[in-house]
Design brief:
alpha+beta; Tetrahydropterin Synthase, Chain A; 21 helices
């Protein structure tokens, strides 16, 4: 009975102290406005009810003990009260059983509800106002230290008494007061930190108090449920439902060590706790633990910054821009958890790909090889990632070329772009957004979709357009990547992500594999077109070379003839001045167009490293042809600028004569080609005919002299020459007698070859 009375007195003293501690903490809350003090007030208020229940429990047990002693004295004198209802003979025992069976479980459940509700209230308050406006922090710190010290002493005293079975209920109150003491110490630290400029500590201490109350609420509910199903053995002490195991671990850590030692002894089969090593470890445990804590604190205070790294220091969970570490080397900070350091690799290049989907199955990837190198064709599935589809709007200038009238105004393309970036501002990159890298990828993807939606695949845009990529599949890939880089930089500049875009490049730009057949037909048609153009050019070269020996010479000859014809075909400036002016203007336009085409051809030859085709001897080339065009244009402009009709007529005649002479001279100076061959043949025929006729004329003059000298002899000679020409190859006889006195006998059969076949044979009969 004395032990129960002492326990009751201690419980009453604890109740008074708990009320006093709660009142002082309430004053600190109202004085400083600290959220941590508010949360501790609700925690200490719950301790008041616990001390009351424990005092009631000790008082009931005291009355039970006193009743038991009185009944023993009465029983020794008489047996009148033996048997019957014990509730009538032992009312205190029945009351104690009622309290332990009903009051304590109900109190446990209500007490758990109190802690849960207060935790929610604290969370709501600090969530609505996370930064409390603290005042009188130094005074609040002093009072918190005083009551915390007194609460710690009384909690240790109560916990020590609770180690004995007769005072076991004091174990729960001692543990709870120790938990309250720790929170009071947290309030003191929070106020001291606010005094030094670290107001964030108040928020975290309040959060810890709310978490502690919620954990206690959950544990009490679990104890309540387990207590209903826990078997009760007569004479065996049962643990009270409101007795927190977690707080007991904080109040009696040595009991945990004894429990672990017993478990180790049981596992090894002998008392390990009695060995010299274990005893040495037990003696040195506290110094070793302190040394370990000091080492951990020291290590957490050192930050090693490597080359290409930058650390951002967070003080009480809030990043501090002014304490960022950028210089490589060893730096110091406050130990964890007061300050933490987060590393950023500012010297590293980060990369992400736009348009690349999930990983491809290895079975569908088709990769060829050529001379030991892997080749991937866009007509087949390739690459380790799936290439996503992009919609490209067909430009209005390209829709007229569509063969199908109802064709869609969009096309599909496979587009994969690589974006490389570097962290420029570690604070902005790490703390401006929750996922800065994801934000950057989303912005880049948006800009790429927006920019490439109006691109042309392989054709240029008439007039050019800065905001529209042209020929994305061919020569326009590089300029489009550069422009896309500028657009992404503008987007991240507005969002202030703290990154620098290093490069943007297109890795894959091609149509879907399903469109390979159509593209191959287009390419085939273009190649056929090129083939026909090259064949036509070859025929033109052969024709021009056949005419003048080389194309430039032929072109100059044709141009000279054309210029001569144009000057002759121009109307008279005097008779038809308007028609003359319009004709000259039209000739200028045509000549300028031809000169522009020729100039473009010369530029293409120069870009391909091919010199203009020179003639071996005449020195003709495409440049000389261009010079002839320019000279012709200058002559036409002189005619156009001449206002006097008479002088224009005279100038036109001069130009026409010069053009005709130039054409004739160029034609005559040709050394090779069919034209030069024709000229050479005509010249030879001319000389042959001329010399032949000259010879005939000189022969006639000489024969006239012979006729005059001997006319009869000359006539006889001419007459005989005529018969020689007329009867060439025939036998002729000259008879120097009078023909009338001669009789002719011809022996034909004796004449070989005379009148063949006359006698039925091929030869004469005389043969």
């Amino acid at each position: 009975m004395t032990a129960q009375k002492r326990g009751k007195n201690v419980a009453i003293a604890g109740l008074v102290l708990q009320v006093a501690f709660t009142a002082v903490m309430l004053a600190i809350w109202l004085l400083t406005g600290s959220h941590a003090a508010m949360a501790t007030v609700w925690l200490l208020t719950g301790g008041v009810a616990l001390w009351m229940v424990v005092a009631l429990l000790f008082y009931t047990r005291q009355l039970q003990r006193q009743e038991a002693i009185e009944l023993e004295e009465i029983a020794s004198d008489s047996s009148i009260f033996q048997g019957g209802d014990t509730s009538q003979t032992q009312p205190m025992a029945a009351r104690g059983a009622f309290i332990e069976r009903w009051v304590i479980p109900i109190f446990t459940l209500l007490w758990a509800g109190w802690h849960g509700c207060m935790a929610v209230v604290v969370w709501g308050v600090i969530g609505a106002d996370s930064q409390a406006q603290l005042a009188y922090t130094s005074q609040g710190t002093l009072f918190a230290i005083l009551i915390g010290f007194m609460a710690f002493l009384f909690s240790r005293y109560s916990t020590g008494m609770g180690t004995r079975s007769e005072w076991r209920p004091l174990r729960s109150t001692g543990g709870y007061m120790l938990g309250g003491t720790l929170m009071v110490a947290g309030v003191a630290v929070a106020l001291l930190g606010a005094w030094q400029g670290y107001a964030e500590l108040d928020y975290w201490v309040a959060m810890i108090a709310a978490i502690l109350m919620m954990v206690l609420a959950v544990e009490l509910v679990i104890n309540f449920v387990l207590d209903m199903f826990r078997p009760r053995v007569a004479g065996q002490e049962s643990r009270l439902a409101f007795d927190s195991r977690l707080l007991n671990i904080l109040a009696e850590p040595d009991r945990v060590g004894h429990s672990l030692a017993d478990a180790v002894n049981y596992q090894f089969g002998f008392e390990v706790s009695k060995t010299w090593f274990y005893r040495l470890l037990v003696k040195s445990f506290i110094p070793l633990a302190l040394l370990g804590m000091i080492v951990l604190v020291a290590i957490s205070s050192i930050v090693i910054v490597n080359e290409g790294q930058e650390y951002v220091i967070s003080r009480f969970g809030r990043p501090d821009i002014e304490h960022s570490l950028k210089t490589p080397g060893i730096h110091f900070k406050l130990p964890w958890p007061l300050e933490t350091a987060r590393a950023f690799d500012t010297g590293r290049l980060y990369e992400f790909q736009l348009g690349a989907g999930h990983d491809q199955d290895a079975d569908v990837i088709t990769i060829g090889a050529f001379k030991g190198r892997e080749l991937a064709l866009w007509t087949e599935e390739h690459g380790t990632h799936e290439e996503q589809d992009f919609l490209l709007a067909v430009p209005p200038e390209s829709r007229k070329d569509l063969s199908t009238p109802n064709a869609a105004d969009v096309s599909i393309i496979k587009l994969v772009a690589s974006v490389q970036y570097r962290i420029k501002d570690a604070y902005k990159f790490g703390y401006t957004y929750t996922d800065t890298a994801g934000m950057l990828e989303s912005l880049a993807s948006r800009e790429m979709v927006r920019y490439c939606s109006s691109a042309t695949l392989d054709t240029p845009i008439p007039g050019g357009a800065e905001d529209r990529p042209e020929a994305l599949m061919t020569y326009g890939r590089g300029p489009a990547a550069s422009r896309l880089k500028v657009l992404i930089e503008q987007a991240i500049k507005d969002m202030d992500l703290g990154v620098e875009i290093v490069s943007v490049s297109f890795l894959t730009v091609h149509p879907p594999a399903e469109a390979a057949g159509s593209f191959e037909k287009v390419i085939e048609a273009r190649l056929r077109q090129h083939q026909q153009r090259y064949q036509a050019q070859a025929r033109a070269v052969r024709t021009l070379s056949g005419v003048a020996g080389n194309p430039p010479s032929a072109l100059r000859l044709a141009l000279a003839i054309s210029i001569s014809q144009k000057f002759r075909s121009l109307p008279s400036p005097i008779d038809k001045p308007k028609l003359f002016a319009s004709a000259v203007e039209e000739h200028i336009r045509i000549a300028q167009d031809h000169a522009a085409e020729l100039r473009k051809e010369i530029q293409q030859d120069t870009s391909r490293g091919k010199a203009s085709q020179p003639a071996a001897k005449a020195g003709d080339s495409l440049q000389t042809v261009l010079d002839d065009y320019q000279a012709h244009i200058d002559s036409l402009k002189r005619l156009q600028e001449e206002k006097d009709a008479a002088r224009a007529t005279q100038l036109l005649g001069t130009f026409a004569a010069e053009a005709g002479n130039a054409a004739n001279d160029r034609l005559m100076k040709l050394k090779t080609g069919s034209a030069s061959v024709m000229i050479a043949k005509a010249s030879a025929e001319r000389w042959r005919h001329e010399l032949s006729e000259r010879g005939k004329a000189e022969s006639f003059a000489r024969q006239t002299m012979l006729y005059e000298a001997a006319p009869q002899i000359y006539m006889l000679d001419r007459w005989l020459d005529t018969w020689d020409r007329a009867l060439a190859g025939k036998h002729k006889y000259v008879i120097g007698l009078d023909p009338n006195r001669i009789e002719h006998w011809l022996k034909w059969e004796g004449q070989g070859g005379v009148m063949p076949g006359m006698f039925g044979g091929s030869q004469g009969a005389g043969q």
